[in-house]
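seq as requested:
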Amino acid sequence: MTPGSILILGGGCFGLTAALELRARGWKVTLIDQGTLPYPDAASTDISKVVRMDYAADAQHTAMGVLSIERWKAWNARWGIDLYHEDGFLVMSRSAMQPSGFEHDSFHYLRGLGHALRRTDHAMLREKHPVWNAERYVEGYLNPIGGWVESGRVIAMLAKEAREAGIKLIEQVKAPRPVLAAGHCTGIETCDGHVWTADLVLVASGAWTPEVLPHLQNVMWTTAQTVFHFQPLQPERFRAPAFPVWGADIAKTGWYGFPVNAEGLVKIANHGVGRRVKASDVRVMPVGEEEKYRSFLRETFPALAEAPVHSTRVCLYCDTFDGAFWITHDEHLEGLVVAAGDSGHAFKFTPVLGEIIADVVEQKDNAWALKYRARQPTAVGSDAARAS
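C-alpha cells:
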C-alpha cells in the first residue's frame, strides 16, 4: 500500500507506536486523543508496567518479549534515561510446579531456549527474598532478564518524539468518534460537529474501543481492574534484588506487583476477571477492595500488610474473548483499521507494536500479526487466556 494520510484515534502504546512507525514510512499522520498525553485515565498511563518474556510455552509472545526487552534497553540508551528497570521477574507457586502450570511451563520453555533462570524453593525464598512468606510459597523461579517500565513517562517520551517527527497531535478533543456511513469509515468527528478526514482511520482507543465501535462488542469488552499503591515505612526492604517484580501464584490468583519506586511506593494489582464496565462511566473502587488486598498481603508479604495506602486506581482493560490483541482491517467498514484488545498485557510489547500495526495498515505480511487478525469468538474466557 502506498503511504497516504491516516488519522489515529488514541495516544496510548498502540496509537503512538503506530504513528511513529507509519510516519517513518512516509505517511501523513494525525493523532487525536480525548486527553492530554499521557492521558491519566488511559491504561498506558501509570507509574509502572511489567516487562517480561515469560509466557508459558507461547512461542510468539516469548519471542516478542525477548525482542521488546532488547529494544527497551536501546530506548534507555537513546533517551539517556532509564525508564526500563531490569530488576528481574520472580514467580512463586503455593504448590510444587506442575506441567501445564504457568510457572512450570515458563521455566522449562525458557530453559530450553538457553535462558539462565534460578529455580527457587521456599528455603531459598526465605534467604534471598525475606519479605515473602516462605511457608506459603514453596516453589518457583527468578528470571533476571525482565522487570518493569515507567509507563506514563514512556508515553510522554513517545509523544515528544511524535511531535518532533512531524506527527500532528490534537489533544483534549471532546468525545472523538470515527465517522461511519454506508460501510465506510471516512474520518473522525467530535460531538460538536468538527470532522477530520484521511485515507485511512486507525482506532487505537483502548478501553473505549467497544463504545466507539459497537459492532465489535461480541469479541471485546471493557473490564475494570484495581491497583493499590502502598507506602511502606521501611522501603529499603522492598527494593530489588530482594524484592523484584513478582507474581504470586499468578495464574490462579492474579496477584502481581513491583519493587518500591523512587517515590517509595510499592504497586500491587490483581490481573483477574475484572468487572465489565463502560469506559465512559465514572470509575468506582469496589467496596471492601482494600481489605481484599490486605488479606492477600497478610498471607504473602506480612511486613507490608499494615502499610498506608498512598493512592488507588481503577485501570480499564480492553479484553478480547481469547486474550489476544485485535489488530486488523475491519471486516465490515472499508477504510477502518483497529488496533485494540490489550487484554491487560500489551504495554511490555510497546517497542515492537508499531511495526506490527504498520504492517497490518499497509497489508504487508507479518507472521506475528496473524495471531491478532479478525476471528470468530469462541468459548475461551479472556481471564484464562490472559493468565499466561
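Residues 359 and 366 are 7 Å apart (CA to CA).
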